Amino acid sequence: MNNKISRRDFLKVGGLAAMLGTTGVVAFDQTKGKGPTQTSDHSLHAQDDNPPKQHMMQQGDHGDLPGTVGEVDHEANGFNPTDVLTDFDYGTVSTLPNGQTLREYEVVAINKEIEVLPGLVFPAWTYNGRIPGPTFRATEGDRIRIHFTNGSEHPHTMHFHGFHPAEMDGVPGTGPGGLVEPGASFTYEFDADPFGLHLYHCHVFPLARHIAKGLYGTFIVDPKGGRPKMDHEMVMVQHGLDVDFDDANDFYAVNGIPFHYQNHPIQFRVGETVRIYLVNILEFDLLNSFHLHASFFHYYPTGTSLTPAEFTDTIIQGQAQRGILEFSYKHPGMYMFHAHVTEFAELGWMGMFEVLP
Amino acid sequence: MTQSNSQPTTNRFTFRTFVLLLVPVILLAGVIALFLTTGGGLDLESPAPVENLDVERYHLEYNSVELYVRNTGPDELTIATVIINDSVMPFKVDPSPTIPRLGRATIQVNYSWSYAEAYGIKIMTTNAVAFETDIPVAFETPEPSSATFWGFTLIGLYVGVIPVFLGIFWFPALRQMGRRTMTFLMAATAGLLVFLGLDTLAEALEFAAEVPSSFQGIGLIGIGAVATFLLLEAISNSQVNASGDESQRRLSVAFIIAVGIGFHNLGEGLAIGAAYNVGEVALGTFLVVGFIIQNITEGLGIIAPVLRDRPTIGRLAIMGLIGGGPAIIGAWIGGFTPSPFLAVLFLAIGAGAIFQVIYEIAKLIQKDTAREAMPMTVFSGVLTGMMLLWVTGLLIK
Predict the structure, then answer these.
(1) Mean pLDDT in chain A?
(2) What's the CATH code of the domain at B129?
(3) If both were cysteines, with which of A8, A186, B212, B274 could B334 make a disulfide (CB 3.0 to 4.6 Å apart)?
(4) What is the pTM of this model?
(5) Concatenated DSSP letters for B126-168?
(6) Nearest-by-Cβ selection for A64 from B110, B148, B393
């Protein structure tokens, strides 16, 4: 009760005492003043520390688990998170006169309504109509040429993490590439360097809004000669969705759609080696994290070394931090992976690996 | 269409009159049609959807949270997701997630809530508009079982019936008093009623804030209060015209006081029942005692106008039931189907009735003071009545 006491508060209180004291619905320990003691049986279950068996049996497909019912329209969205895992974009490849490999990409920034939860539409700003944007993949030393066109109603840029000249930085004040007006184009060109796991995003101000609306993606630079071969490689971009624009995330996800990998588990077999390129571009919240159930992974922060820094099952990433995870499973079964910021997990950043025998 | 004979023209309702009456209506339809088709030259396209959803009440049972919602926005809306304590939960909506304007729906979520804990619930529509509500203290919502039904009945008994009857039991003693004392008691009753009337109005305003804006809670108070005041005024005037007997008139005033206090107690019952449902419970038996002390004055108020007469015990009992009984009905309604709309309406009716009764009592007192000058009796009486409620209120809080 608040400080404002009205006659009605008094009436409530008095009346309730009258009712409760006489009906025995709830008996009150008035001498100790510790509040209600349950005597009725209809409240017992919820209060029980050990939930009765019935609790587990009541769970259906989703039961009491957080999650969504139904499916978003991936076709209308123009992308499916299951495909985003592995759709590495190597670009249009040619060789420059000096022998250097040239990879060319076409990128268009467009506004797009994306159904992020069944029925719930997020008016996103996207690279090529998807969240996250395309996963560019090159080898150390390749020439990268990105033909960027702004097809939206706001100025946007592409700011890459990595080595490049100032005018290719995609930040206002660095020339024509620093602010690409609606309808305008710019070609970002630089060498893929250093090797590792990087990212790109729009750098137009207000920055938080331009990132939170969906303008980000992964940029993988493989070392010359590549990394050791794995059975599976996948990209996971961790991000938030501020669908009501109050500068706080309403949902969390990897690769665009909350709970997608919970509803569609990622399959591989016992003993198969898995490499995850994990990027965090989460806006508004300080930290994000990745926790793997029932296994451990070797972790390569930023992917800039071929020697793992850690063998663990949980890592933390701040915004724009990223790293490579390598692991396999010893036992078949369903295993959860999720942000060990459990609030994020229950708001969408939760998925399942289905390890087949 | 006046019936005055001084008009040279006949007052027959002709076809021509009918057409003339229709002309503005037809023109109005034309203007609306024009506006709807052209937008009237105004750009009324809203950049963001205007949606409004009211959570009217919730219902908790084992492993389940039910939310009773009403769409109070200008257009239909569709519920897309339900988030309880920062957890996206699968949910069902009956009859449909798409709710028409002013339509209602029930959202059901399987959620293993814990006793006595607090929950924040966020409902999002397909347009990503969020509506939030709180469960301040979670506990099993009382079902309309015979036990809870009896429980709410007992609440009503303690809140309304018992105090009112206790007050009426003063009747034999007060009959022995002189005319001046009786006038003083009438004035005190007026004072009590002024206090209760203000309190009822304040509560109506409080509930009006919870009423969905499209139902215009404040306007509802005006309608309920003014209509009740004028209706009771009309009834009491027609009774006076019919009988002209002053003791009959005093009896009818007593009945109207009982009705006014009855509506007031109905409102209290509603509030108590609703408070129980949302867990606004802090307890102590001494408060019940204080409650009875304060409300005994209501019974006193009912009998004050008829002290010099000899009403039958049956009549006194009926007045007591009219004054106190509605608390039981209020507790049932508030406990099982709490509705701020009904609460506002009942409280407004109560306020209207109470103020009309004050007016009636004032008239009776005027008659008394016309026979015998009692300059300070009325002043001290009214003040005593008001102070009585104020001071007993202080003691309890």
Answers:
(1) 85
(2) 2.60.40.10
(3) B274
(4) 0.72
(5) TT--EEEEEESS--PPPPS-HHHHHHHHHHHIIIIIHHHHHHH
(6) B110
